[in-house]
Write a structure and sequence with these properties.
The chain is built from 14 helices and 18 strands. By secondary structure, the chain is an alpha/beta fold. The chain is globular. Bound molecules: pyridoxal-5'-phosphate (PLP). GO terms for molecular function: DNA binding; DNA-binding transcription factor activity; pyridoxal phosphate binding; transaminase activity.
């Protein structure tokens, strides 16, 4: 490590004091942290072109005053405890140097943006967590991934040191095109595909191309907050279109032009319905008529448990109006941050330029390993395996809810990794259930921004709970619902008894 030190031979301060002051300043400012190793004195002499004695004396003074410690034949380190008077001196110094007048950049003028959260801040309080959209960590194909990673690293050549095509590793784009044809009915050339940092970056890319303040953005209600908030941050004019039991109410699309419509037709987020064919065709016709684009987010379409999956909306897109967005966050893991977007061909040159401006492309290694995983058949096997596991978990949840509560309706259980439960009318509203569940270590969620949902047009929003089941074992699911039933029903019975005794009195 080289420290950013400099000596000024014209200065009135001698060289030893200059070195002392600069290292002390870095320690007090937190640039060098306690316990951190300092470069050796020989290295410092060479760097600053000063004599060994200058450095030795500067370090000795730092040690005498308690800023550094030397462990014989190990090295020199910043002290674990910096002398109190030194910290006090620094604070006084900073007070004196506080800038006065208007800051160069007035932070109150920064646009106020809202953002969704996919990180469960309460996780540490929860033993059994029905948090939405998480794959089971035990299902990650760790052994194969490690083998493929090692193999790629050993033959990396210049792949780690040189810039590559910002749109992504060609083998991965080809593998995705090959996967989409049979799995989703999409005929796309690899040259139409851009590898992104998950769905979220794909949505950003689309926004950079199509959105400016005032652009009409159509979103589902309830819908995915990660899309709505993003469009809002671009200054879009948002239209929240209601979702009924079939999905987006396409007949309510506004009569506007050059709009962007964001939809989750395979498994609506959060309600879980699958948009039927007639509505899909109507939506596509609307896009053509209004000169608009559709963004199809197919985030968890790999999991379908009942019937055959409907082909993607993109598969019907003869007019090239659909951006198809996919992610590996749900089938492999969100930590990989890998997704992609299939771009209408005429917009691809612009999309490539925006991708280069954003980050010059995703990290090479994960892309290359994923390509190998897909091309050697591992991905298809992995999907088959986890689909089967998730089906077992889904059934366990349906069974547990049925036997604990009897009534109540589940929605969207035919596909995906979560389902929505319309609570029986005698139970309290969703926020109250969430609090009671939390008190017995169970995490359940409602249709609110804390589950990345916004539902501005839904009056009965507090009657719904959303259960992610893919990351829990069947046993955990059964126990979690039992505990939930105890927490909710015992209290409800106690309250009923209390109320009726009050009435009798
Ligand atoms: C509808 C929807 N789209 C996209 C995502 C996030 O995808 P990614 O991790 O690829 O950004 C989520 C995450 O839960 C989601 O629910």
């Amino acid at each position: 490590m080289q420290l950013p030190l400099e000596v000024d031979r014209e200065s009135s301060l001698n060289l030893q004091t200059q070195v002392f002051e600069q290292i002390r300043g870095m320690i007090l400012a937190g640039q060098l942290r306690s316990g951190q190793r300092l470069p050796g004195s020989r290295h410092l002499c060479q760097q600053l072109q000063v004599s060994r004695i200058t450095i030795t004396l500067a370090l000795a003074r730092l040690a005498d005053e308690g800023y550094i410690e030397t462990a014989r034949s190990v090295g020199t380190f910043v002290s674990r405890e910096i002398p109190e008077q030194a910290l006090h001196a620094l604070q006084t110094d900073l007070e004196h140097k506080k800038p006065t007048g208007t800051p160069a950049h007035d932070r109150s003028r920064l646009p106020k943006i809202r953002s969704h959260t996919l990180v469960n801040e309460l996780a540490h309080r929860i033993a059994i967590d029905f948090w939405v959209g998480r794959p089971d960590p035990r299902s990650f194909p760790l052994r194969t991934w490690t083998r493929l990673t090692n193999k790629r690293l050993l033959s990396a050549g210049s792949a780690l040191t040189e810039y590559r095509d910002p749109t992504g590793v060609p083998e991965l784009r080809q593998a995705i095109a090959d996967h989409l044809r049979p799995a989703r009915g999409i005929i796309a050339e690899p040259e139409q595909i851009i590898i992104t940092g998950g769905c979220q970056e794909a949505l950003n890319l689309v926004c950079r191309m199509l959105m400016s303040p005032g652009t009409h953005a159509i979103v589902e209600s309830p819908g995915y907050a990660g899309a709505s908030y993003l469009f809002e941050s671009f200054g879009a004019n948002l239209h929240h279109i209601e979702v009924d039991e079939k999905g987006l109410e396409v007949a309510q699309l506004p009569d506007v032009t050059n709009a962007v419509a964001y939809v989750t037709p395979s498994h609506q987020y959060p309600m879980g319905c699958t948009l039927p064919l007639d509505r899909r065709l109507e939506l596509l016709a609307w896009a053509v008529k209004t000169d608009s684009y559709i963004v199809e987010d197919d985030y968890d379409s790999d999991f379908r448990y009942v019937g055959s999956p409907l082909a993607a909306l993109k598969a019907l897109d003869s007019a090239n109006r659909v951006f198809y967005v996919g992610t590996f966050s749900k089938c492999l893991g969100a930590g990989l941050r890998l997704g992609y977007v299939v771009v209408p061909p005429e917009l691809m040159p612009a999309a490539r330029r925006y991708k280069a401006l954003t980050n010059n492309g995703q990290p090479w290694l994960e892309q290359a390993v994923l390509a190998d995983f897909m091309n050697t058949g591992g991905y298809a096997r992995h999907l088959r395996k986890i689909r089967q596991h998730y089906l077992g978990k889904r059934d366990a949840l349906l069974q547990a809810l049925g036997s604990a509560f009897g009534d109540g309706t589940t929605i969207g259980a035919e596909a995906g990794m979560h389902m929505v439960w319309r609570t029986p009318d005698h139970l309290p509203a969703a926020p109250e259930i969430i609090t009671r569940a939390l008190n017995c270590g169970v995490g359940v969620y409602d249709l609110s921004p804390r589950s990345a949902v916004i539902a501005p047009t839904r009056p009965d929003v507090e009657r719904y709970l959303i259960f992610g089941y893919s990351s829990l074992s069947e046993k955990q699911i059964a126990t979690g619902i039992e505990r939930l039933a105890d927490a909710v029903q015992n209290k409800t019975r106690a309250e009923d008894a209390h109320e009726s005794s009050v009435c009798r009195a």
